[in-house]
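Please review this one.

:::
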Amino acid sequence: MNIDYSQFYRGTTNIPSYGSGAYKKDTLVKYEFNTTDEHGNKVMDKMSREETLQAMKDIRSQYGDSVIVEFSGDGMAALAEGRKGWMVPEDKEAVEARNAAFQKDIVQVDKSLNNLPAYSGMYGADKAVASALENCSKEEQGFVYDIIRQNFLVGNSGSMTEEERQANISLGMKKAEYAAENFIPEDSRDGFLEAMQSIAKLASAGKADSNGNMDYGVAKGRYLGHGSNLVQTTNALDMMRTVDKDAYAEYQKMGEKDDGGLSSLKYLTNWYASAVKKNPSMVDNYEKQSEEYVEKNVKNQKLDKTFAGLKTGSKAAFFESLRMFQSSNPNFLSSIINRELASKFWGF
């Protein structure tokens, strides 16, 4: 039986890749099965344990090995109940406590990923952001990198209209302004805001394919070090993907071998050495493509102003002005605004 799970899809995010070969993970896809919508209207019954397992199996089968699928929502609570076997009737408080624990258990990704750096591929902007955050708390760093991941450079925009995607970028810029006013060191504020605006423009100029997968037109950044010591290196794999698609296809086949990625690494290393020998200017030409794209398509990009009226002087002011925006526009960008209002960062 074919079931359409698209209504439960909550977005796709690129995450810092880890692992190699067949074990490499670089994408997070989220599905949320709630029995009611944000207005309290019932949208589904709780699924049985068997239905939950089948849904998870069906959805996971749609994605490749590099994708982590995250499941959540009270509609899947039966899976937690099934773990306990036969149980005596429980009071409401006990059920809610158990289901809350299940929600934490069912998530398939380490939440600490949210605090890891997120880069645009524009070295100057990325280093300016990293330097500005160097002495900030982990929570503050995570807040800024979340802007880049969730508001700017989303991996897939299939759940949004283009108007909503641009508005999401606008929300991200107001969050960046809040950061600049409230915790970015004073001597780094101008550089930080300029860098975040550059990344926002890059995001705004991005294009989606028919499946909503985003292309931002620049080479994926790869760096060593952190903060003010961030150093750019050449992303050999992305260069292969860009300049030699046949070699990249062969590289992907190597990932199917069960050798911990050794064959893939050897193939990439040999390809790079051979390609540079044949074309000494290959690296410069590859990097120049990104520079030319930014100059032509990003530099003069105009940003959306949907959230220009948000107040950024304090957490309370930002939170209240965003809540008021939602009250006036209840059906616009609702899932993203709900996520923002529920963020622990704001503390409300």
The CA atoms of residues 80 and 105 lie 9 Å apart. The first strand starts at residue 9 and ends at 18. Residues 82-95, 101-112 have pLDDT under 50 and may be disordered.
